[in-house]
Amino acid sequence: MMYSLFLASVLPLLVAGKATIDSQIAALEASNSPILQYPTQLTQNLVPKAIHSHNDYWRDVPLLTAISLGVASVEADVWHMNGTLFIGHELAALTPNRTLDSVYIQPLLKILGEENPIDQFTVNSTTPNGVFDTASDVPLQLLVDVKTDGVEALPFILQAFEPLRQGGYLTTFANGTLTLSAVTVVGTGNSPLEQVKELSPRDYFFDAPLTQLTDPSLNTTWDPTLSPLASTDYGTAVGWSGIGNISAEQLANITQFVGDAHERGIKARFWDTPGWPIHARTAVWRVLLENGADWLNADDLEAAANF
Ligand SMILES: *[C@@H]1O[C@H](CO)[C@@H](O)[C@H](O)[C@H]1NC(C)=O
Ligand SMILES: *[C@@H]1O[C@H](CO)[C@@H](O)[C@H](O)[C@H]1NC(C)=O
Ligand SMILES: *[C@@H]1O[C@H](CO)[C@@H](O)[C@H](O)[C@H]1NC(C)=O
Ligand SMILES: *[C@@H]1O[C@H](CO)[C@@H](O)[C@H](O)[C@H]1NC(C)=O
Ligand SMILES: *[C@@H]1O[C@H](CO)[C@@H](O)[C@H](O)[C@H]1NC(C)=O
Ligand SMILES: *[C@@H]1O[C@H](CO)[C@@H](O)[C@H](O)[C@H]1NC(C)=O
Ligand SMILES: *[C@@H]1O[C@H](CO)[C@@H](O)[C@H](O)[C@H]1NC(C)=O
């Protein structure tokens, strides 16, 4: 029954040929027909990619530009002043209207609200969808790069995330279990390691030092319940310009640091990779990915997404 109905509707199109099909598709697309609409289509067709949007807040439209390209990690520089969390690269770039709440948290709440409609089909759902419609179980990683005193800023940052916490949208480590959710928040910059360790439950994680995971003087057992991510400055850890051949020592450093992270179930990221010339940038990205680096750190998101 269903099958013959299907044939009856499709056969004439097949017979009439491609031009007719295209015009039918165009007519349907223009029709606003409800069969073409679904609640979570905001991010339909976007395949999430392991790209980190370096200095995301610099983009004309922070957060959404990254999400629109399927970029699954963004970074916000946060300045704590008098209890308010401003967003910007330097003091001169701060404005009263650009805060952690207005630039990241409210837009995320809106997107996640659209990806998580509450209706008769979702009443029994226990885990929320993430921002990517094609891969709703992939969390968005949000790096909070604290620029001011970390111990002072942390309580305000944790408070700022309360709306996402209330929605059940934050990846959380509690009672010995790490539960992934729509957004994984990772503190970097001046984020205070000892205070992050003490959080229980923990929904603010710590960007581990990728070159020091085996260093006993840090008194820390690095694992994904504390640090889902470990990062290092590409220039000092590797340094290859992307032109000519990479040296054996440089390559050995990449594999050693990536191996140290993967042994612990942690993802590896090298930041400040060369941006120019383009062929050098691409050569570095390729060597990093071929040797297991998990996140491409990118300023040019479109180039990285099409890489
Ligand atoms: C912080 O508060 C002090 C004292 O009230 C004030 O002088 C200063 O302008 C405030 N700074 C910001 C960034 O609002
Ligand atoms: C910016 O913030 C000021 C006060 O902090 C407010 O009066 C104004 O409406 C805001 N502007 C925009 C565009 O949101
Ligand atoms: C939700 O759970 C109830 C009770 O188990 C069940 O009757 C109902 O069919 C479920 N709804 C969906 C959409 O799965
Ligand atoms: C952790 O365990 C406590 C006590 O059993 C419980 O109240 C709490 O809800 C649990 N937290 C989570 C996030 O599961
Ligand atoms: C590690 O522990 C030792 C002994 O308790 C202490 O002296 C040292 O300062 C600690 N190192 C760090 C980085 O906290
Ligand atoms: C390898 O990594 C170590 C530790 O970070 C660094 O001191 C050394 O300079 C690196 N070697 C190269 C060739 O970059
Ligand atoms: C670079 O590596 C290639 C392949 O291993 C080799 O043929 C070439 O001679 C190397 N170039 C230099 C400048 O070492």
UniProtKB/TrEMBL annotation:
The keyword Signal applies. The keyword Glycoprotein does not apply. Residues 1-17 form the signal peptide. GO terms for molecular function: phosphoric diester hydrolase activity. It comes from the Eukaryota. One of its GO terms (biological process) is lipid metabolic process. InterPro entries: HAT_RTT109-like, PLC-like_Pdiesterase_TIM-brl. Keywords: Signal. Belongs to the AIM6 family. PANTHER family: ALTERED INHERITANCE OF MITOCHONDRIA PROTEIN 6. This is Altered inheritance of mitochondria protein 6. It comes from Phanerochaete carnosa (strain HHB-10118-sp).
